[in-house]
Design goal:
Layout: E1 16-27, E2 30-41, E3 45-50, H1 56-63, E4 71-76, E5 79-81, H2 86-91, E6 94-97, H3 109-114, E7 120-123, E8 126-129, H4 131-143, H5 161-175, E9 179-183, H6 191-208, E10 211-215, H7 219-225, E11 228-233, E12 236-242, H8 248-256, H9 263-272
Parallel strand pairs: 3-10, 3-11, 6-9, 9-10
Antiparallel strand pairs: 1-2, 1-4, 4-5, 7-8, 11-12
Helix pairs in contact: 5-6
């Protein structure tokens, strides 16, 4: 993947889209996150990796408005924000795609696409849903990355895995204009569907220049998409690396707490293109 951040570009020259400073989250005596500092720059993909319980999903839930941090601040384009709900995040241009896709099984593609953003027209003082306009816009967005759903009115539960993923990813193409949070978006997909999803994410970044945080258990995918990689371990930032200046071996070493992986594991990574790592939080 060719990124838009040129080698040698000074960090200070980039416009900061998101800044999380000193983020902490506690569940009773359990420290889920401690003193997390994270910057996301304009037109950048940040890979977020870590082993089980590292704090990745907790951090994403804070940035998407599902959790409130116990300490720390979040800035969006230089302005401090307080997110009380996912609706607050969406209103500010922060979209999230979850591993389980967060689709309503009993609704069709159009309503899943526009849920919370329905288009209305006033007629004699009454608000009427614009079904055809919403369907047109949904088809238009999905067609940009070659997805064709025969009947937009079929309930999502009857769609294939790839079609469901296209609806979920299509929402962030349409609505995400500042920051997109991708929490294991390919975890439940087959090989071909995964490749299509990765191509779609790369296409969206290239065409819309939207910044992203990308969580994946697959190191190869992270290296394919990310400009920088942030490693969490035990609820803290273990390291931040420019993708072009690091290796899977180093990233795994940061994740496990030893900067050097075993020779056997290093050989596997060199031959196989990267390990698959369980990223459940």
């Amino acid at each position: 993947m060719t990124t838009s951040i040129q080698p040698g570009t000074d960090v200070s020259e980039r416009r900061t889209i998101l800044r999380a400073a000193g983020i902490g989250k506690y569940f009773g005596s359990v420290v889920a996150l401690h003193d997390i500092n994270l910057d996301v720059y304009d037109d950048e993909v940040v890979g977020l990796v870590g082993d089980n319980g590292a704090g990745k999903s907790t951090l994403i839930k804070i940035l998407s408005g599902n959790f409130r941090p116990d300490v720390g601040t979040i800035q969006l384009e230089g302005r401090e924000i307080r997110l009380g709900s996912p609706a607050d995040a969406r209103a500010l241009g922060i979209e999230t795609v979850y591993q389980d896709l967060a689709l309503c099984e009993n609704l069709d593609s159009v309503y899943n696409f526009f849920i919370g953003r329905e288009i209305y027209r006033r007629v004699f003082g009454f608000r009427l849903l614009q079904h055809k306009e919403m369907e047109r816009r949904t088809r238009e967005t999905l067609s940009r990355f070659g997805t064709h759903i025969p009947s937009m009115r079929d309930r999502v539960e009857y769609l294939s895995g790839g079609e469901r993923q296209s609806v979920a990813l299509g929402r962030f193409i349409r609505w995400g204009d500042k920051l997109v949070l991708l929490d294991e978006p390919t975890a439940a997909l087959g090989v071909r569907e995964t490749r299509n999803a990765l191509d779609l994410i790369a296409w969206t970044r290239r065409e819309k220049h939207v910044s992203m945080i990308f969580i994946s258990h697959n190191i190869e995918h992270v290296f394919h998409l990310a400009d920088r990689i942030v490693v969490l371990r035990n609820g803290e930032v273990a390291g931040v690396r420019e993708t072009r200046a690091t290796t899977p071996v180093e990233i795994v070493g940061l994740m496990t707490g030893s900067l050097l992986a075993s020779p056997e594991r290093a050989a596997v990574m060199q031959e196989g293109g990267g390990p698959r790592l369980d990223a459940t939080d």
